[in-house]
Design a protein that fits this description.
The complex is a heterodimer of chains A (106) and B (127). Chain A is mainly β and 106 residues long. Chain A is 0% helix and 48% strand. In chain B, the strands form 2 sheets. In chain B, strands 2, 4, 5, 6, 9, 10 and 11 form a 7-stranded mixed β-sheet that branches. The chains are: A mainly beta (106), B mainly beta (127). At the A-B interface, β4, β5 and β10 of A face β4, β9 and β10 of B.
């Protein structure tokens, strides 16, 4: 199985801050990497797919980059609605696997 | 408008079988390039992919749970059903269903992602 390792596991930030989350795959996955936002009581939401393509309707303050084994999700200016847990997920091969999550707190 | 909604019992006893239904709307389970996956999240833990079923009835399961899982679909009813046998307290989690969509990029590469999710249903396994 491909292991996905996210860091940090949690972070504290303020509105307006730039936030960066990293995700590392245990083997090369090209750009088969997705990012999701999960908030309590809400349906999870895909933010980025194919490592860097912004999902339709997602604000442009979210950007993804990377290929191979190292990936990054950046929020350029944190907004109140962005406080959530973020997960990376590889779609290169089954079993599909997720990172451990990064909780972004105020 | 695309929606998915999970339904099923909130409480299950150890050794029992869990049956969850995902009711979809706004798309057809028979559309080429579309599947529905099941993902769960134990309280305070990470997301875990369980399996998926596709338009052509192809199925995938995570190896660690393969012997306990069955996923089926009824295209006419817009339902996808997850069955998990021999439930244990460690299976306590929020269970999500999500549409898995194949997307083609301008470079003619295809990528799969879970583009729409249900809100999830919490299943607690306790005697």
């Amino acid at each position: 199985d491909i292991q996905m390792t996210q860091s940090p596991s949690s972070l504290s930030a303020s509105v307006g801050d730039r936030v960066t989350i990293t995700c590392r795959a245990s083997q090369s996955i090209s750009t088969y990497l997705n990012w999701y936002q999960v908030q309590p009581g809400k349906a999870p939401k895909v933010l980025i797919y194919a490592a860097s393509i912004l999902q339709s309707g997602v604000p442009s303050r979210f950007t993804g980059s990377g290929s191979g084994t190292d990936f990054t999700l950046t929020i350029s200016s944190l907004q109140p609605e962005d406080f959530a847990t973020y997960f990376c997920q590889q779609s290169d091969r089954t079993p599909l696997t997720f990172g451990g999550g990064t909780k972004v707190e105020i | 408008q695309i929606t998915l909604k999970e339904s099923g019992p909130p409480l299950v006893k150890p050794t029992q079988t869990l049956t969850l239904t995902c009711t979809v709307s706004g798309f057809s389970l028979g559309t080429i390039g579309v599947g529905v996956g099941w993902i769960r999240q134990p309280p305070g833990k990470a997301l875990e992919w369980l399996g998926a079923i596709y338009w052509d009835d192809d199925k995938q399961y995570t190896p660690s749970l393969k012997n306990r899982l069955t996923i089926t679909k009824d295209t006419s009813k817009n339902h996808v059903v997850l069955t998990m046998t021999n439930m244990d307290p460690v299976d306590t989690a929020t269970y999500y269903c999500a549409r898995r969509l194949r997307v083609w990029t301008v470079s003619r590469n295809s990528y799969w992602n879970f583009d729409f999710w249900g809100r999830g249903t919490l299943v607690t396994v306790t005697s």
